[in-house]
UniProtKB/TrEMBL annotation:
<feature type="domain" description="HTH marR-type">
    <location>
        <begin position="1"/>
        <end position="142"/>
    </location>
</feature>
<dbReference type="InterPro" id="IPR036390">
    <property type="entry name" value="WH_DNA-bd_sf"/>
</dbReference>
<dbReference type="InterPro" id="IPR000835">
    <property type="entry name" value="HTH_MarR-typ"/>
</dbReference>
<dbReference type="InterPro" id="IPR052067">
    <property type="entry name" value="Metal_resp_HTH_trans_reg"/>
</dbReference>
<keyword id="KW-0804">Transcription</keyword>
<keyword id="KW-0238">DNA-binding</keyword>
<protein>
    <submittedName>
        <fullName>MarR family winged helix-turn-helix transcriptional regulator</fullName>
    </submittedName>
</protein>
<keyword id="KW-0805">Transcription regulation</keyword>
<dbReference type="InterPro" id="IPR023187">
    <property type="entry name" value="Tscrpt_reg_MarR-type_CS"/>
</dbReference>
<dbReference type="Pfam" id="PF12802">
    <property type="entry name" value="MarR_2"/>
</dbReference>
<dbReference type="InterPro" id="IPR036388">
    <property type="entry name" value="WH-like_DNA-bd_sf"/>
</dbReference>
Length: 155
């Protein structure tokens, strides 16, 4: 019986990771240089801007970042005066995060730059191709999460 051998450069999870890392590195460099933001900090700002007030747990769930990363980013953003923490009336163990006026101004400055970078990275792809790619990425995410389901883990 012959077993298929793994060729790393043709292994889809590896290719996804490499492509993601290259794109993230380019974006991280731009955000750091232009706005003094690390990627986790920008993600927090963007999620809070979209959702208004939000808990750190919700940010973890939405962005798939771990609690420590989210907590550190939140502390950095509070220290910079970009987000504010307030008591969560529904859960005394958590806080709600919201953008300050300075945070909203930063978001208004960063968003066009983020969209510009996205456009530059994907400029050679047609709109139908990009729409299909987004659909496929969402399907990959769902399929990967299904692998983690208790039924698949034998639990």
């Amino acid at each position: 019986m012959t077993h298929a051998s793994l060729v790393l450069d043709e292994f889809i999870p590896y290719r996804l990771s490499i492509a993601s890392n290259v794109v993230s590195d380019i974006i991280a460099s731009a955000y750091e240089a232009l706005f003094g933001l690390r990627i986790p900090e920008w993600r927090l700002v963007a999620v809070i801007a979209e959702e208004g007030q939000v808990t750190q747990q919700r940010i973890c769930t939405r962005t798939r970042m771990d609690k420590v990363t989210v907590s550190r980013a939140a502390i950095a953003l509070v220290d910079r005066g970009l987000i504010a923490r307030s008591a969560h009336s529904g859960d005394r163990r958590s806080h709600l995060l919201a953008l300050t006026d300075e945070g909203r101004a930063l978001y208004a400055d960063v968003s066009p730059k983020a969209l510009e970078l996205e456009a530059r990275i994907f400029r050679d792809f047609g709109s139908e191709e990009l729409a299909g790619f987004m659909t496929m990425l969402r399907r990959i995410e769902v399929a990967a999460l299904d692998v983690l389901s208790p039924e698949d883990a034998g639990a």
